[in-house]
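Hey, I was hoping to borrow your eyes for a little while. I've been puzzling over a protein and I'd love to understand its fold better. The fold is given in discrete form, as structure tokens running alongside the sequence. I'd be grateful if you could look everything over and explain what you see. No rush at all, and the record is pasted right below.
>
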Amino acid sequence: MKLPSISCFVVTPFSMQLQSEPNENGARQSLGELIVGKCNFSYSRKRIFKKDGQEIVTNARAILEPLSIAELEQGTFTLLEYPKSFDIVEVKYLRNPDGSIHHIELGLV
């Protein structure tokens, strides 16, 4: 069984640049993979706690349809209609009852 598609709600164009983990200098390297698509974007504040106990307050969230990449961890999320960029700090894969990915929710700062 699968939940209904979210394709009618994803209307805001975006681009996303994936990046590696920070090195010893704190700089991240671009992985060269640029993803362009549409999402459901909203400004909403949410407090999250990372595995190491660090508290982060997200300023926005984006909901995407499932992507064909293996795993999304860190990167830069840019809205194409508005010249605004965000850093990805949280990724949630929400699933259908059969275990397949229904949609992806990003926490953005």
User: Anything to note?
Assistant: The mean pLDDT is 84. The two ends are 34 Å apart (CA to CA).
